[in-house]
Amino acid sequence: MYRYDEFDQAIVDARVAEFRDQVARRLNNEISEEAFKPLRLMNGIYLQLHAYMLRVAIPYGTLDSRQLHMLAHIARRYDRGYGHFTTRQNIQYNWMKLEEMPDLLADLASVEMHAFQTSGNCIRNISSDQFAAAAADEIADPRPYAELLRQWSTLHPEFSFLPRKFKIAVTGSAIDRAAIQLHDIGLQLVHGPDGAIGLKVLVGGGMGRTPLLAHVIREFLPVADYLSYMEAILRVYNRHGRRDNIYKARIKILVNDLGAAEFARQVEEEWAALKPLGLDPPPSELARIAAHFAAPALDADAPVDIDLSNAEFADWVAVNTHPHKVPGHAIVTISLKAPGEIPGDASADQMDLIADLAQAHAQDEIRVTHAQNLVLPHVRRDALFTIWQALKGAGLATANLDRASDIISCPGLDYCTLANARSIPIAQKLAVRLAPQEADLGELKIKISGCINGCGHHHAGHIGILGVDRKGEENYQLLLGGSGAEDASLARILGPGFDENGIVTAVEKVIGRYQTLRAGPDERFLDTYRRVGAEPFKEAVYG
Amino acid sequence: MAESTLFRLRADPQDSSWAQGDPAVPLADLAAGGTAVRLEPGDDARALIPHLASLRRIDISFPKFREGRGFSSARILREAGFAGEIRAVGVLYVDQLAFLVRAGFDAVLPETLFDPAVARATLARFPHVYMKAADSARPVWLLREERALAARP
User: Fold this and answer.
1) Phi, psi of A438, rounded to the nearest 5 degrees
2) B132 and A279 in contact by Cβ < 8 A?
3) Is A517 within a domain?
């Protein structure tokens, strides 16, 4: 885990003082709501349908138990006893009072946390692989590279008023758990010709109104040139990205309009100007950061075989744990998707419990996943039963990871001012209906957005659902065939939309047809869809 | 908009080459001469590079809040070695002052007057910066490196 030094702490403390001052000026009416809006947005504070909403940054989705306890405290003290984990590995609180916000930010700062740039047209929270430092398939822990980016992008003087928001993901593995092809910039750690680690650079992916997959603009970027190259990409975007139309302002539109080759050429040209300016920190800085992420001392002789005679426990182990790179250990995913509950929500008590488990059994680390679940990354297999029992007692032992009821959903019209339709009730209904058969269905990723902005990643869903407004009525479009993983693809609309009950029935028909078409128990829905195409599903739904 | 609303981000320059009153001409008219020019957001700052030696002031326009191209323009001009005055003109808020300083601006002519006390407090707010830019502030990675070197026996 990265720990702040006095420089990091001083910057975060100054931010709290600045916002305290800004809120005081607002409450005294020295500044109008119009002038205040950009200031609160830079601190992650939105005015939603019913109240202020605060989005707290969880850099690359990594927390320690002290921080998760603080998130629980904030839920109790300032909200209604719960928080909502987001698809950007952050947490949102939905019932905030503006006058309490400075104290809240001070509480966060006391555990080295903040809400910097969780909103606004700037570089947002850097996301990463939730299995970092635990998965056997990575070449290195991506988080030091993400932390270096976090620092570089914090209060960047040139890139705080970009054409639009800007999202970067970093992964250390060819198995993509961070959806790097669907980010403004996706970075993958790779070995160069001489064996040194560098970065493969992808640009121009994204979802929203115009979903596009990213293009590789550089196969290998030496680490020594990392930040100056990022500056070059951001400068080309800041200068030439469209500002006349909010829906065409993301970098993906610029990359698409110029063509990836021309965009890459412009970046290289800009980089040639920037590289000699000494913008890149010395290697000692990355080494300093990386030292904070030193691998935990795990016992490689820990027993691999554990008692799986309890069938429910055995099922949970099979579904919600992954192999760890150290023998005798596992990566545990705690599902926040109990069917019927709100996807991604956790109560303060649940957060406290998970923090305690992390401290006792998981090297004091917790990760947030972009699928809105939590992860204990370093767990001895012989502690799994104890953990499972504790989770079960708190309603957290749902064995549904990557299955039909593990649904990603945005907050939708229940909370969000941008939404056209509710998402949460659709997720709840689908989860309840599909849970009984999900074990048979295997991996099936359903993702729901309540508007075209796509915070629920519907374009990356094996089955995606998009809520729209049709003449004042909520209407739901059905999309099939998306993936946010290393086999990334964009889901396509199947046909005309449905009302709230109709969309649930339509998904059930799609799944029913899949079961008749499936080549075998190992063929996922996505594989079947790719093999047979949309027609059979169209016929099942509309035929 | 009176000249008196100009807010200086640095101490008043002693250098007489700084021309407060020179009228700024649009980029397109620069060929006809002039010592001050006004860059609009869509103008290419690099088009000024051949003219920098004859320019004493460059005004960079921010016609609306959220317009961020001027930050790149200023930095590009500083990177090209321009040592005259760079002035931000338009819809700018006091809370953007630190960004303006770091991007290389010397002065701001805001549409709405700043409260000088708030402006001073804002400029003094952040004790450290994370990245190099067009000002003289040294990023924390440099401070950390110096500290590590000093700690070596």
Assistant:
1) -70, -30
2) yes
3) yes
User: A161 and B130 in contact by Cβ < 8 A?
Assistant: no
Q: For residue A115, which of A101, A128, A97, A95 has the smallest C-alpha distance?
A: A101
CA distance A72 to A49: 23
pLDDT score of B2 more than 70: no
A315, A377, A371: which is closest to A132 by C-alpha?
A377
The per-residue pLDDT for range A214-223, each reduced to its tens digit, is: 999 999 999 9
Residues A178 and A138: their CA atoms lie apart, in Å, by 12
CATH of B3-126 among 3.10.620, 1.10.10, 3.10.450, 3.40.50: 3.40.50
- The pLDDT-based confidence of B19 (bands split at 50, 70, 90) is low
Residues of chain A falling short of pLDDT 50: none
**Domain presence at residue A269:** yes
pLDDT tens readout for residues A47-87: 888 889 999 999 999 999 999 999 999 999 999 999 999 98
Rg (CA), chain A: 23
What is the spatial distance between Cα A183 and Cα A166, in angstroms, rounded to a whole number? 8
Query: Contact A160/B68, CB-based, under 8 Å?
Result: yes
Which residue from B75, B101, B121 is facing A158, i.e. has the nearest CB?
B75
User: Which ipTM value was assigned to this complex?
Assistant: 0.94
C-alpha A70, offset from chain centre: 20
Tell whether the model's pLDDT for residue B29 goes beyond 80: yes
* Interface contact A157-B145, CB threshold 8 A: no
The answer to whether residues A199 and A71 belong to one domain is: no
b/e map B37-75, b = 16+ CB within 10 Å: bbbbbebebeebeebeeebbbbbbbbeebebbbbbbbbb
CB pairs under 8 A between A and B: 110
Across chain B, mean pLDDT equals: 89
Please give the pLDDT value at position A32.
87
Domain edge (last residue) among A93, A109, A125: A109
A350 is a domain residue:
yes
Q: State whether A279 and A144 are in the same domain.
A: yes
pLDDT at residue B20 in the model: 64
Statement to judge: residues A53 and A194 lie in one domain: no
Co-location of A49 and A74 in the same domain: yes
Confidence (pLDDT) at B18 = 54
Candidate from A5, A21, A161 with C-beta closest to B68: A161
Boundary-marking domain end, from A291, A324, A353: A291
**A419 and A374 in one domain?**
no
- Look at the block and give the residue holding tokens 């059930």: A508
**Closest approach of B119 to chain A, Cα-based (Å):** 12
Question: Could you report the per-residue pLDDT of B66-110, keeping only the tens digit for each?
Answer: 899 999 999 999 999 999 999 999 999 888 999 999 999 999 999
User: Does residue A433 sit in the same domain as residue A500?
Assistant: yes
Any idea of the CA torsion for B25, B29, B33, B38, to the nearest 10 degrees? 30
Residue B42: closest C-alpha in chain A = A239
In total, how many domains does chain A have? 4
Q: With H, G, I as helix, E, B as strand and everything else as coil, classify residue A150.
A: helix
Q: What is the pTM for the complete model shown?
A: 0.95
Distance CA B6, CA A512 (A): 70
Report domain extents, chain B. 3-126
- Asked if residue A153 and residue A278 are part of one domain, the reply reads yes
Per-residue pLDDT band at B12 (split at 50, 70, 90): low
Same domain (yes/no): A141, A286: yes
What's the CATH number where A214 sits? 3.30.413.10
Domain limits for position A37: 6-109
Which pLDDT does position A35 carry in this prediction? 81
Chain A: give the shortest CA distance to residue B124, in Å. 10
As a whole number of angstroms, the distance between CA A429 and CA A402 comes to 17
Q: Please indicate, yes or no, if residue A116 is contained in any of the structural domains.
A: no
